[in-house]
Design goal:
Layout lengths: L6 H5 L8 E2 L2 E2 L1 E2 L10 H13 L10 H20 L7 E4 L2 H16 L17 E5 L8 H10 L2 E5 L9 H7 L4 E7 L11 H11 L2 E5 L11 H4 L3 E5 L10 E5 L1 H6 L10 E4 L4 E3 L13 H17 L1 H20 L4 E4 L16 E6 L4 H10 L2 E2 L1 E3 L4 H6 L5 E5 L6 H11 L2 H4 L5
Parallel strand pairs: 3-15, 5-6, 5-7, 7-8, 8-9
Antiparallel strand pairs: 1-2, 4-10, 9-10, 11-12, 13-14, 14-17, 16-17
Helix pairs in contact: 2-10, 3-10, 4-5, 11-14
């Protein structure tokens, strides 16, 4: 049975939510861009920096040993949060770095680097990299660059008018030449939870590696990456109540063990001569140089906080907020939602997170965002690092509102009330 989330108690743990904007109580609906941080996360970083700050995996003194223990405990906590083992979790600076790590590692395998097992990732002209039309640029441009370096072809799976990914088309796009299938668990523009199992099955039938962008799912859904069956996945700390500058790459053990390193240098080697180097096994093989130690400890505090609230409760609470937001936006004249199966063709009800991007008829997204900001409501405006997806829907920019566990129904209502006044304020209401 899912417990009920006490939003008032949760809000009290987030200091910034007490702030006022333009003399009005802040309504923060931009968590898809970056989430607010609870005191537990802030305190965890401060405590490490003031009590145990030292380089990890490098010293024999007491502080270094304590810092290393805290760092590896953090790895275990974050890995456990996504159902993984500690050795399956590589620290990165964020999801963008994680995807680039994978793309460049595959490029290195193509160049003949790595152990014999690395050859399984090597690309040749005519091989295919498959993405979707709904990608964040971070899960698009690295694959464009890899295709350019290797001669592989980059193909995409289209998005339907209602925002769902065309799984029928996916079956024809993914072929026996497909080497990588990269896709989002949840679109950062459409908010729709994509059918991971279908993509994994198609990729496996083609012998392709799957790469999942879990940035918009990790903070909002119970997440078990091994159970999802993906080969690799990335997520970012700052979107899931954690610090900036830290994220993680999850990988199946056999995949990580076969991938050659991307960044090289200190802390990821066993033996170095002037002519060659031998590398550590994962995850350290992919963690060259100084790591985001205090940030990793802060991220561990974030996942422990989420666990204490309960991810089932988080998901249920946010689902109710998202439904309230969607119903309210549909009822406002002149509002066009992107990715709305409830009013689209064919897909019917789909699972989603509490995120909606919309166009205000006759008002530029930036102007709409400024209007909402004047009322203390923080939203995101622009193309949300997803220009091809916006182009697919015939717009250059949208307003995006995204809720998290600390938001309330009253805040959603305040947002909807403000949105209903945008067009009349700018003199375009019919």
């Amino acid at each position: 049975m899912t417990s009920t989330l006490d939003a008032a108690a949760v809000r009290a743990d987030f200091p910034l939510l007490d702030e006022t904007i333009h003399g009005q109580r802040l309504v923060y609906l931009d968590s898809a861009a970056t989430s607010q941080k609870p005191r537990a996360v802030i305190d965890a970083e401060v405590d490490f920096l003031t009590r145990a700050n030292a380089a990890v995996h490098r010293g024999a003194h007491t502080l270094a040993a304590e810092a290393t223990e805290l760092f590896e405990d953090a790895r275990a906590a974050v890995a456990g949060f996504v159902g993984a083992q500690p050795e399956q979790l590589v620290w990165t600076s964020g999801a963008t770095a994680g995807i680039n790590l994978v793309a460049y590692a595959i490029g290195n395998a193509t160049a003949g680097r790595g152990a014999p097992a690395s050859a399984r990732f090597a690309l040749a002209p005519g091989d295919e990299l498959v993405i979707t039309e709904s990608e964040h640029h971070a899960n698009l441009i690295p694959w464009q660059e890899l295709a350019a370096r290797t001669g592989a072809a980059l193909k995409h799976i289209p998005v339907r008018d209602d925002g769902t990914i065309d799984t029928d088309a996916a079956a024809s796009v993914i072929s026996d030449r497909t080497s990588v299938v990269a896709f989002p668990h949840v679109s950062n523009v459409l908010g729709i939870v994509n059918p991971v199992a279908e993509f994994v099955a198609l990729a496996r039938s083609a012998g392709a590696v799957t790469v999942l962008d879990a940035c918009q799912s990790a903070p909002h859904l119970p997440l078990d990456l091994p159970a999802l069956g993906v080969d690799l996945a990335v997520f970012s700390g700052h979107k899931m109540l954690g610090p900036y500058g830290v994220g993680a790459l999850y990988g199946r053990s056999d995949v990580l063990e076969a991938l050659p390193p991307f960044l090289t240098g200190g802390s990821m080697i066993t033996t170095v001569t002037l002519d060659e180097a031998k590398y550590l096994p994962p995850p350290q093989r992919f963690e060259a140089g100084t790591q985001p130690v205090s940030q990793a400890i802060g991220l561990a505090a974030a996942v422990r906080y989420l666990d204490s609230v309960g991810m089932d409760a988080v998901h249920a609470h946010e689902t109710a907020l998202g439904e309230r937001m969607g119903e309210g936006l549909r009822s406002i004249p002149g509002i066009r939602l992107l990715g709305d199966p409830a009013s689209g063709s064919g897909a019917g009800h789909v699972e989603r997170v509490a995120l909606w991007a919309f166009e205000v008829e006759g008002v530029h997204a930036h102007d709409a965002g400024q209007f909402l900001d004047s009322r203390g409501i923080a939203v995101r405006v622009g193309h949300h690092c997803a220009q091809p997806l916006h182009r697919r829907f015939g717009v250059t920019a949208t307003v995006r509102a995204s809720a998290a566990l600390y938001n309330t129904a009253d805040e959603v209502d305040a947002f909807l009330d403000a949105v209903s006044g945008i067009r009349s304020f700018f003199g375009v209401a019919s």
